[in-house]
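Handoff note, outgoing to incoming analyst
You'll be picking up this chain. Sequence as last confirmed:
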Amino acid sequence: MFCFNAPATTEKARAIKTQDEVSLIRQACAIADVAVCAVRDAIEPGVTEDELFAIMTYENIRRGGEHMDVRLMATGTNTNPWTHLATDRMVRPGELVAFDTDMCGPLGYFADFSRTYLCGDGQPNTEQREAYKVGYNFIYESLDLFRSGAAFQEIAQKCPELPDAYKYQRYPMIAHGDGMSDEWPVIYWPDQSWSGFDNDDDVLQPNMVLSLEGLASKEGGRESVKLEEQLLITENGPEILSFAPFDERFF
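Most recent structure output, in case you need it:
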């Protein structure tokens, strides 16, 4: 009897998107950009995580999106560790609001990127600035590695290491594929083989879409910063599909 690993083969086939799929993912990301800006504009002392998540959901559904995958909307101490879903917690002045779009847009194609904003008119404190710098720099110092033909193992080895204080609570993977949800491929940290998760012996190809994770979560810290960009792999390098602004007060 011949055995065939159909799920693995199907996942790999789905990883390379058609032009129609790329167009739908672009549309989903455009909707997510609008939704992120609506959330940013609604952040004020006293607003709850549930209210902010409702705004993001509304902006997706009213533009033809299908649903939200996960309620990852956290504020203040709920951001550390990065495991809390939206609650009725009210955000306070000077706290961080961190969230992940995880948004299925029209016809079910996925927008998955993250932003973190500061509540109020003040300036971030030292701990917040440090975390934002760690998350942002990780993404943009890793970005050029995401090129057609790059081996998953090579990307994992060449990505910059996080500072020691941020390693324990780092995101489970460096990057993951996007389609109609989180999909193959997944690029794991190079020291994760002990856990049973290891990098496939494969390479990036044109028209793969991935989310590059930039979680900065210090063990024992008060807050985390969650940043993430969605990328299209092209013959000429990675193209960023997520355009929602970062919080300029951190730069």
